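Let's see one such:

===
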Amino acid sequence: MTTQTINTTLAASQQVHHLYQRAGFGISPQEWLKMAHWTKTEALHHLFNTANKSSLLKVPASPLAAVLSNKNKLQKEDRNKLQQEEKKLLVQQNAAWLRRMANPQNDALLERMSLFWHGHFACESKIARLAIQQLNSIRQHALGSFRDLVLAIAKDPAMIRYLNNQQNRKDQPNENFARELMELFTLGRGNYTEQDIKEAARAFTGWSSNKNGEYVFRARQHDYGVKTFMGKTGNFNGEEIIDIILEKQQTALFITKKIYRYFVNEQVDEMRVAKLADLFYQSNYNIYSLMWEIFNSDWFYAPSNMGNKIKSPTAFLAGMIRHLNITDIDDRSLIGLQRALGQILFKPPNVAGWPGGKTWVDNSTLMIRLQLAAVVYKASEVGFRFKDEPEQSGLRKLKKLDATINWQPIYRLAEGINEEELYSILSDYLLPNSYKTGQNTLMPFVAHTNREESIQTLCIRLISLPEYQLC
């Protein structure tokens, strides 16, 4: 093999590594054995083709269904019991989604896009059925038409309840959804007027949900009067309001810029984003085309766009589970880790979602991140406080998790590799391409009792580095 061939293969593997960090949640050892020799194009086709074949999730029955549909009020004790069962179901659905993200047999791009849109259309539901219904709407349109996605969210019972649109009635409009639709979901602040909000709210009157958690249009509550919205006058309904918003190229620019910050770089290249936004607008808001253009572009793989983003708590947890083939973590432990790290699925801090970036880490969350692999690996403890607790609350203890690491795939990854090359192979697999800690700095802290222990402790040390927090 010539030097040129080696360099080409290395460049291709770095591209695939970067692609799966951003468009997924990293690569399992099994995947890396296969994908390290793929071209960027092969990896892209694999990501997009599998995402297109995904099915919707099974919507769970709600323990609170009896409360929602029963006209006779239940006793307080019975209602509280049902609410506790509902909370347990939400925990199960949360953990199931995190495990799908971490499982290499699932569709990495679809799960990553769903996580992005989950943060964009931030919504908390205390009913698991509604949360999964909304997630299904997101999954169905995550790589499809942005118009269809916005419309699905506007008719989503979880969002309707979260933003009080069930209270939006003729002669008594509620402006919550109309305001957030423009400020957070489509146009961005400053690109509409207060009068636009009032007129849009009138158009969405009657968009509601029933006790079974289904969208219903209540015709008697709808305002059929003439409305003037963004310079246009007509007897508009909610769907027509969405179409007028999408006619504005500002919508394409706002969404494209947010996608760029999330998937590429928080330092926005305005000219590049403008070109992408024009493509997005001209494609009639085709999300698939926009994401393909981003991931297929040479600039996406430039050193300046590698290793420059802090992993979200969800991406960090899913990635570590995938890298180490971790199993048997119970649901409540996964929820506890999410809370300690500052991101609980299905429970955003507000309708604006999680701010991301540098807000993901502080003294407490960084300590947990750096020591979590060791907690899983051996009986150690980490002192921490939840991100939303004051410092005077004192430290909690994160004890050894009931978890299992399957080391066999990593052993196969290291087959035929001598001791001198082991560091290079495993650091290439686990760390961002632009960050490599010096071998001489780390190796003295790696056990050398036998080869298996060397591999294990080296992996744990690499995952415990600050560089592992980046992608």
Remarks:
- Residues 145-265+267-306 form one domain.
- Confidence is low (pLDDT under 50) at residues 1-10, 379-384.
